[in-house]
Amino acid sequence: MKAGAQRTTVILGAGFAGRALAKEIREKMPDRKLEAFWDDDPAKIGTNIEGLPVRGPIAQVAQGGAVDEAFIAIPSGTKNQLRSIWNTLVDAGIAKIKILPTISQIVDGEAHLVLTREIDPQDLLGRNPVQISLKESLKYLSGKRVLITGAGGSIGSELARQLLSGGAERLYLYGHGENSIYQIDKELRQLQAGGVGAGSTIVPVIGDLKDQGHLEFLLARMRVDVIFHTAAHKHVPLTELNPVEAVTNNVFGTHHLIEAALASGVSRFVLISTDKAVEPNSVYGATKRICEDLVLEADSRAGDRRFLVVRFGNVLGSRGSIIPLFREQILAGGPVTITDKRMTRFFMTIPEAVTLVLQAGGVGAGGHLYLLDMGEPIAIEDLACQVIRFHGKEPHKDIGFKYIGLRPGERLEETLWAPDEEPVPTAYARINRLVKPTPARDLRPFLILLNPICFFDPNQPSRYRNRQHLRTVLRAWCPTLEDKDEPEY
Questions:
Q1: Which of 2, 276, 397, 402 is the catalytic position?
Q2: Domain 7-124, what architecture?
């Protein structure tokens, strides 16, 4: 395309979303030459909508002349449909391909240009996400003040996006890393400028969950109604190398947040947990299992307020996860690193996981642990092959593989529930309740043992940052944790 020339643009999908995009493109993007809609509906093909011809079917888009950019405006499209459309556009030589979110993420029922983004492998991988009306699911948050911890992370930032137009009065974006909080704050304000969630007040908050006094100070003044707690150190090999910090941040950070929430009258507390909390063999998994117990025990002291847990497996495309790593390796020419040919994981997309978390947070009862239906486990090597093909390469031919073996704390496969837990379906699609035969344990004696390891006690100086003692104490609570030699400090 020549400098200064208009970019020839088409919209795939002539439904409500496509029509809304066409209107905004004309108003806000004068450098685009909007050429046509493309649609598979015979009743629309050959008609004129919003002053644009509707051509079709989409498989013939290559015959419509040179196109620089395509917007996929089919929010109800299945994964198979999206894969077929993407292949068609790539074969047609269209370099710029953008997509709208799924229908469940268009909370206010309106599609906005600001919601579009570059298409990503996770849009084409995995199963079809459940279609939920977030407008209905988020009624419990209407007019409420919502705090998201770890708001700059993958799950926290997606929660913020979906909550933005859900009617919350105020969104507190809490995080320790100022850059990540700056980024999500900036993104949400851009969404508001584009017409999404203009009625919500956004408040970025930099803080550290380990600072109990600051948390108590904040929550006493914020008048928070609902907390979604996503913040945690999550990288398994790194938490194996830094176990004391993992426990200090994850366990005591959660404990401090719970106590501040109870004291300040928070009505609903939702912990985001992981399949690695099931019979944990890693420090990270152990910390998340302890956090689950902390939240479930807190509900017994919460009166008519609700403290609950939502557990799920891996999410596609999260920061520091496998798909971004594969992408970096593919762009560098390979090889792609695979732990083991036999390794499998449960996966769902971040938007679907967050949609279900928001729904579970509303319908879930206090003192219960909810499990998202993750479908069947996926072989990591199969996932790598799909990502390679997304980038126009052929696995084992254009991009090689390197098998590196299990890293500390990793296991070949995960399970979603323990032998003493039974998943029971709820009335809501892909949300199960885990029935546990025994009530949550009192963690106070356990926290007393952990405290001098994580926080300096002049009466027990040898305990401070003592990794050997930490593993001994953790294994007393989580006997499945790997018993291995640790340096003392």
A1: 276
A2: 3-Layer(aba) Sandwich (3.40)
